[in-house]
Amino acid sequence: MTDMEWLRALRQRWSAENEGVAVVNVVTGQVRERLTDQGYAILPSALACALDGTPVPETLKAFEPTLYYPSTLYLLAKSLLGEKYPQCVSSAVP
Q1: Which of 1, 42, 45, 54 could, after both became Cys, cross-link 77 (CB 3.0–4.6 A)?
Q2: What gap in Å lies between CA 6 and CA 8, rounded to an integer?
Q3: What value does the mean pLDDT of the chain take?
Q4: Are 63 and 29 a contacting pair, CB within 8 Å?
Q5: Residue pLDDT, tens place only, 5-47
Q6: Angle in degrees, CA 76, 36, 83, rounded to 5
Q7: For residue 66, what are the contacts with CB-CB under 8 A and spacing of at least 6?
Q8: How many H helices and E strands in the chain?
Q9: pLDDT of residue 71
């Protein structure tokens, strides 16, 4: 599997239809819970942007801090997007 194939598979697993990043029991393969905080929700959006240039949804453009870890993930993802993919987070309409 190439890097791009792996990233596309990851994006599919993290898609919005799956209602959040899954915490999976590695022995049984069963989903234990879904992580739906804004910090987790931006991960598939950042991946879609990097792969296809898909804009980040408006609902994820404003930071709303919650717990430490997902808030940190959010800020790191926004930093990456702002530096490498500013077209995905721009509020300007062409």
Answers
A1: 42
A2: 5
A3: 87
A4: no
A5: 888 888 777 765 667 788 889 999 898 998 889 999 899 899 9
A6: 20
A7: 37, 38, 39
A8: 3, 2
A9: 96
